[in-house]
Amino acid sequence: MKGDLFSSEHMVQPASAPGMTVENSKCIRYAVNGEMLARQGAMIAYRGQLQFERKGQGVGGMLKRAVTGEGLPLMAVRGQGEAWFAHEAQNCFIVEVEPGDEFTVNGRNVLCFDASLSYRISTVKGSGIAGGGLFNSVFTGHGRLGLVCEGSPLVIPVSPQYPVYVDTDAIVGWSAGLETALHRSQSMGSMLRGGSGEAVQLLLQGEGYVVVRPSEATPQKAQQH
Questions:
Q1: Which of 88, 90, 109, 164 has the maximum number of C-beta atoms within 10 A of its C-beta?
Q2: In sequence order, what are the residues at sequence separation of 6 or more whose Cβ sits closer than 8 angstroms to the Cβ of residue 42?
């Protein structure tokens, strides 16, 4: 077989290291030796002796989706082999979480992660957010977290002198040490007149980084997920 399709650019090579690596900009490869966790339906191919098992909500297998509050089911992948994960051809990135770190991420951006990581659900409550609050998962421990993002994300430094305001539909995640609050940028009179469409933002203050995607989810698309 010949042609550009079979060039080294597209040909999968043997895994060079155990665990999670970026296969290409749209896909993450995981060399499994034991157990890892992934978004249900995100596996696009695998080889080896692997088993896939749904994780129920009672076992901590649900991440809350930002804005809508919908659940994102997870699956456990166990055994020995290799699996490839992707979601709607979105761009893939890996975050290294080290002991003492804390990374808060929107559930819709989670693709897969090491079983050594733990997470808890946190909310930023306030009016104007569907479902009663902005739901996020806070990851701690030691391991790798695979994320997806529509387009190339922006990583914006946050400092006490320069807080950052982010559209609640565009937030991907933020690092430890940042305080959050909902900020209303329009007066009630402006909202009644139609406003700008940017009524509420997430305010991040402190020292760290915030990750933003260059798109906003529509309610119709969120429901399809």
A1: 109
A2: 85, 86, 87, 111, 112
Report how far apart, in Å, the C-alpha atoms of 213 and of each of 108, 156, 172 are.
12, 11, 6
Under 8 Å between Cβ of 144 and 19 = yes
Q: What pLDDT, in 10s, does the model give residues 46-68?
A: 999 999 998 765 434 455 443 33
State the average pLDDT over residues 97-111: 91
pTM of the shown model: 0.80
Cβ-contact 106, 212 below 8 angstroms: no
What is the model's pLDDT at position 44? 96
